[in-house]
Amino acid sequence: MTDRQSDPARQAGRLRTITQHIMEQQRAHPTATGDFSLLLGGLTLATRMISANVRRAGIAGVLGTTGDINVQGEVVQKLDDIADTAIRRCLHYRESCGVLASEEAPEPTVLEHPNGVGKYILIYDPLDGSSNIDVDVSVGTIFSVLQRTTFETGKNAVLKDVLQPGVKQIAAGYVIYGSSTVLVYTTGAGVHMFTLDPMIGAYILAAENLKMPEVGKMYSTNEANLDSYPEGIKKYLAWCKTKDAGPYTSRYIGSLVADFHRTLLKGGVFIYPSTAKAPKGKLRLMCEANPMAFIAEQAGGMASDGKMRILDKQPGELHERTPLIIGSKKDVQRILDLCEKHGA
Ligand code: AHM
Ligand code: MG
Q: Which of 61, 62, 214, 296 is the most buried (most CB within 10 A)?
């Protein structure tokens, strides 16, 4: 490296932050108003705050549970609560944001703004992978953005606006609080990845237009549930262990964000089908499966519930669950063929 290349000032000039990236994308779409960057700005601020809390969790005394049970019937961790509050606070005053729908709350919250109704709906899982918080394993935030269609007020009208299929998402993404804090997002024009530089507190572009390998060598599933998996999935997992498959590796973290992030970068497949414990699947369609499916498809991958494309599913309720098979195109297709033959 020459002196000129290693000069920190020159390097800083080459860095692209997420704000610059979003503005460039916006310029490429002349009809865009800037409202959307305002929304994403609030979200990136919130995830930086969450990241700071996750990094200091053991020192700041925020490990453990709050003692509450959420709408999903699950124990609320202190960090779940901190993450949800950070997102609400950072989005509350952004006029473009009209509705917030959290995995932690039973109903969507309509935001009142002095100058009218915000046009975007943010659906999110504030801290995914809660069971991993206390053991220092990667967790994440997942988000999906929809546009309001009716702008009507009243509980039922808002729900009608929120319950749109994933294909209508105008943006989706996640942040993984892992060995570094990484944000991945799409607005339907490719998948872009940023790393949080803790020294300057900004997300810096790491890769543009990410593509998932067409086929991978890893499968990711909670195999303890195998006995009650659908036959097609059982057949696939049996095949993965044959010489023919040549050989596959098993990786399961138990944080969707972390399992999906690895699948996006390395290829392979993540499977959470229906089980005896969770007959409709465990993962939430609107705040977990839809955003990941949008990213997977934009990266050249696939996402299905075993019978149909995730993004085409019409949600009947905000916290609806779904089976999820997501990852490299050829791996997902192989599973779907087996599901068709043997049952999904
Ligand atoms: P959470 O949003 O309450 O953390 O639950 C979702 C998590 C996913 O991150 C992960 O894929 C799955 O639950 C793990 O479930 P299991 O422990 O049944 O394997
Ligand atoms: Mg979750």
A: 296
Domain 218-342's class?
alpha beta
> Can you give the length of the chain in residues?
344
Residues 271 and 331: beta-carbon distance below 8 Å: no
Q: How far apart are CA 280 and CA 278, in angstroms?
A: 6
Domain-wise residue ranges, the chain: 3-207, 218-342
- Pair 301, 271: CB distance under 8 Å: no
- Please indicate whether residue 284, judged by its CB atom, sits closer than 6 Å to ligand 1: no
List all residues 6 or more positions away from 38 whose beta carbon is below 8 Å from its beta carbon.
94, 95, 96
Fold of 3-207: Fructose-1,6-Bisphosphatase; Chain A, domain 1 (3.30.540)
Instruction: Show the 3-state SS of 115-146.
Output: CECCCEEEEEEEEECHHHHHHCCCEEEEEEEE
Ligand 1 pocket test, candidate residues 269, 272, 319, most atoms within 8 A of CB: 272
C-beta 138 within 6 A of ligand 1: no
Please give the model's pTM, rounded to 2 decimal places: 0.93
Q: Is 140 in the pocket of ligand 1 (CB under 6 A)?
A: no
Over the stretch 189-242, which tens digit does the pLDDT of each residue have? 999 999 999 999 999 999 999 999 999 999 999 999 999 999 999 999 999 999
